Amino acid sequence: MTTPLIIDTDPGVDDALAIALAAASPEVELIGVTTVFGNVSLENTTRNALRLLALLGRDDVPVGVGASRPLIHPHPHLSSAHGADGLSGYAHTLPEPTRGPDHRDAVTLMRELLEQADRPVTIVPIGPLTNIALLLAAHPHLKPKIGRLVVMGGGVQGGNVTATAEFNLWSDPEAARRVLVEEDVPTTLVPMDLTRRCAVSAQWLTDLAKTSDVAATLVGLTPDYLETYRRFLGWDGMAVHDAVAVAEAVRPGILTSTPFPVDVDCSFGPNRGALVVDQRLEVDKPKTLDITMDADLDGLRSFLFERLAHLAG
Q1: Is 39 helix (H, G, I), strand (E, B) or coil?
Q2: Which one of 77, 82, 139, 241 is the catalytic residue?
Q3: CB burial of residue 252 (10 Å; 0-12, 13-18, 19+)
Q4: What CA–CA distances, in Å, run from 171 to 154, 261, 271?
Q5: What is the pLDDT of residues 150-166, one digit of tens each?
């Protein structure tokens, strides 16, 4: 039996691969996509989501438009890694969507999808956690309908947008703290410590582009992002952060998780947005979060390639 899946996203190059992975995986049924500000403006993330679903032949999946800003404080700035349009300046190479966003906003769409579901739903937030915080605050009675949150975000050993904070958590620390610390929904956190280790090479991308027209179009969205990660990684490759989180949602246990107590720094100092992980073994742990700390890296890359290589077209 397939697992119903909702992706909450701010596309984003790695978001594009993540959505494609969900569409290509028979273990899950992609029942909804919700958009949030993040890598680029909400207008662009929504347009990108609609175009990606059109490319993947999944115009049937409703797209709910979500938060355009954080819960409390203004968003300092958008990401530059994904280019001006979020897709390295190549969003125009995707087909125009045949429909617009759903008439329901992101929270309403998620609420109705959860209410209608006849089995637990996995939600994969791969952008700032604003929409998820709003959903859980407004509709706490629906938490039993959520099988698991698989969240891409945070850095155990440091950040990427600051020395200590990863972009998704830093974009709305208050929302991140509500979801990761204050709520009681089963949650697996996929931090950038692991997703960077799962980076793919430029040759991997070149080989993937040869498998189908759809895959070639997806790889064609990567130039700006790839150039950014060449600097970050020190070699010719790029991280596919969000696709790693979707891989865990599709195949639970493909990543190795360890439970740790966590907090999110919501102060206004240099650590704002940082994930605080208590790795001391001797402390009492009344509440922990499953954090993915390891994986069979080559096996994971092979899984991603196999699935994305079977996209139609």
Answers
A1: coil
A2: 241
A3: middle
A4: 11, 21, 13
A5: 999 999 999 999 999 99
Task: Dig out the tokens for 87 from the structure.
Answer: 């897709």
Please answer whether residues 245 and 12 qualify as being in contact, where contact means their C-beta atoms are separated by less than 8 angstroms. Answer: no
- Fold of the CATH domain 3-309: Inosine-uridine Nucleoside N-ribohydrolase; Chain A (3.90.245)
**0.85 exceeded by the pTM?**
yes
Q: Cβ distance 91 to 97 under 8 Å?
A: no
The Cα–Cα gap between 278 and 268 comes to 21
Residues 126 and 18: beta-carbon distance below 8 Å: yes
If we measure between CA atoms, which residue out of 71, 105, 308 comes closest to residue 208?
Answer: 308
Total residue count of the chain as it appears in this document: 313
Q: What is the pLDDT of residues 45-58, one digit of tens each?
A: 999 999 999 999 99
Is 73 catalytic? The answer is no
- Adjacent-strand bridge partners of 275: 264
Q: DSSP secondary-structure letter at 105?
A: B
